[in-house]
Every structure is written in C-alpha cells, then in structure tokens.
Amino acid sequence: MLEQVVSSNAVQLMATAAMGGLSYLFVARWPVIIVLAGYMVAALLTVSFLFQVGEVYNYSDLYRRAFFHFGDDVTTWLTPIYIWAVLEKRRFLAVAVACGILFSGTKISIFLLLLQFLFVVLISKGERRALSLDVLKSIAIAAVVYLSLALASPYAVRTSNQVAQVATCDAAADAGCGQIFQESMRGYGNCRGGDCLDATILRPLRHRAFSAVAGFWMTLQGGFTGPRYPNSPERFADLMIEANPWGINDTFDVSRDEWMKIGTVQTPYLQFGAGYGPGLLACLLVGIAGIGILALRTIASGERGPFLAYSVFFIVNAVFNQTQPWLGRGPILFMMGLCAACIIVTFVRQRSTSRTLSNA
C-alpha cells in the first residue's frame, strides 16, 4: 500500500515541486550553482548540436534542434537562467545560455523568453536601454555561433569519424569501424514539400484543439484516476473513439489513428484535470494564482535582482505555457517549485522587514 502511494503520480508531482522549492535554499546561498548549471547544459547542447549526439532534428542545412538527452523542454527551463544572467550582468553566462536556447530552439520556449524579456523591460524603467542592449548583444553573438556550428557540423562529424577510424581500426576492419558520430535523419522530410504549412502549423493546431476537448471532457467526467487513466496512445485512442465526446469524431472526421498520433491530453492544466477531476484542478489553479499575486505584489514594492527573474518565469510559464505538459515530473515543474519558493520566501522576508521597521 505504501509503495503504491509513493509511486502515485500525484505524490511524485508534489515531490518534484518540493525538491525544486528546497533547492532554492541552496541556490539563494550559493548562486554559483545556477552559473555552473547554465554552463554545463550549454556545453552539452553545443556538443549535441555540433556532433549530432543525442536527440537531434535536422530540418534543413541551417535549421537544427538539438536537445542532447534533456528532452525538448530544456529550452523552457533555460529561459529563467538566461534572464537571471542578464539581470546579474553575467554576460558570458548570458551568451552561453543564449546559445543553448538557440541550439534547442523550441518555439513555445522562445515565445516565453520574449514575454519574460518584455515583462522585465516594462518594469525596469531606468534600465530599459541597458537591458535591451545586453540582450541584443548576447542573442547576436549566439546567432553567429549557431550559424557557424550549423555549417561546420557535417565536417566535424566526418573528421571525427575519420580520426577515430585511423586510431582504432586496422586495414581489415569493416566500413562501420570508427563511426562514433552520425548525422541525424530526424526531421528530414517534415517540411520539404508542399505540405510544410500543414505539417508545422495547421496539423499541430488541430491536434492540440482535439486534445483540449478530450481533456475538458475527461475533467468534467470527474477525472480518470489511477489505473483508469489512459496512459498510452492506444488506451487514449480507444477511450476517445468509444466516448466520442460531444460527437467530435463525427463532426471533424477524427479517426482512431489520429487520436493515436495525438496520444494524450497535451494542455497541462487539462491534463491534470483529466487525471484528478475539477475539484483538485480548481485547488491547483487557486494555489498558482495566489503565488502569482504574491509575486506581483512583491515586484510592485520594488524587489528586483534574482527575484525578478524567478518571478517573471513563474508568472509567464503558468499563464502562457499551454502546450508543454509541464505539470508532470520533470525539470520545468522543478524550476516552478524553485521559483515559487523564492516568491514565498521573499514575500515573507519583506513583510517581516516592514513590520520590524514600523515597530522601530
């Protein structure tokens, strides 16, 4: 029984957020942790981009997305580190993290970064020009690095393989000996014909809309907890074909194969509601909104520095990131826990300081 409770999804979600919250105590005490994490992730993404190691997608000669083994949400949780580096005037770190963001290049994440930057600029009245210049410089340098490595990548892969072949293979070895790197074929053909608009925009929008309908219907049904939750594309497709919520299959000609491609509820809040029902979803939304209000009140009182980077990420991600399933065990939820802890601790400290001054 205890093992089932510990392994349940709800407990693991709370544990992930709590671990992020506890990590803030170390990050606040030793900011070098953020610095080292930023450089390490940027370096690994650089290796992945240049030598096509790990999860890499080649859409064209100059358009590549490399995630190493971090997953496609790495761009999102790098964005608060980038904003933190800009605010703290750590220019080398800002350039390194900007390179990592461009190398991984998730579109929604770059949109979230733009919103965070606009938020920071709007409330930093006396530093707008300096912040804008710092961002433009770091992004420009990162863009030059991106283009240079994209052009150099095929040669780097071939040269590394040739060196490895000479060093490790004898004359009688087969042709595959020493092939330590290989150009990724993922992404080829996705946008190389007349269906580019459909493949990159229209079809994903259709799938996300159907996914949201499915999540809303599952939420209204009270949620599908535990083993009832369709945790595989096959089970999800079977449920949607059988239930046919509001006649969506007939109205829009949605087949089982298309539900299989959709795979699951993709919107984070509806995904949570689909599993736990409207009551717990409402509690979650109230909690997130409450922390967001604390962040806005603390920002309005003049708090800046690292707090601003963490607060802006928390607010922007909670409101605008409706395409990545970040309400699950993963680094985005971990980062949200860290940001929430920063907001709460700063708010409590600020209130305590105000009371002390008023009593003096």
Q: In terms of per-residue confidence, which ranges show pLDDT below 50 for 5 or more consecutive residues? A: 1-7
Taken from the alpha-carbon principal axes, the silhouette is globular
Q: What is the makeup of the main sheet?
A: 2 strands, antiparallel
Rg calc: 23 Å
Strand order of the largest sheet: 1-2
Tag the structure with descriptive keywords.
14 helices, single chain, 360 residues, two-stranded antiparallel sheet, disordered N terminus
Can you walk me through this structure?
The protein is an all-alpha fold and 360 residues long. It has a domain at 31-191. 72% of the residues lie in helices and 2% in strands. It contains 14 helices and 2 strands. The chain has helices at 2-7, 9-29, 32-51, 74-87, 91-104, 107-123, 128-168, 196-220, 233-243, 248-252, 256-262, 268-300, 306-320, 331-359; strands spanning 55-58, 64-68. It has a two-stranded antiparallel sheet. Strand 1 and strand 2 (64-68) form a beta hairpin. Helix 4 packs antiparallel against helix 5, helix 5 (91-104) packs across helix 7 (128-168) and helix 12 (268-300) runs antiparallel to helix 13. It is globular and about 80 Å long. The model is unreliable at 1-7 (pLDDT under 50).
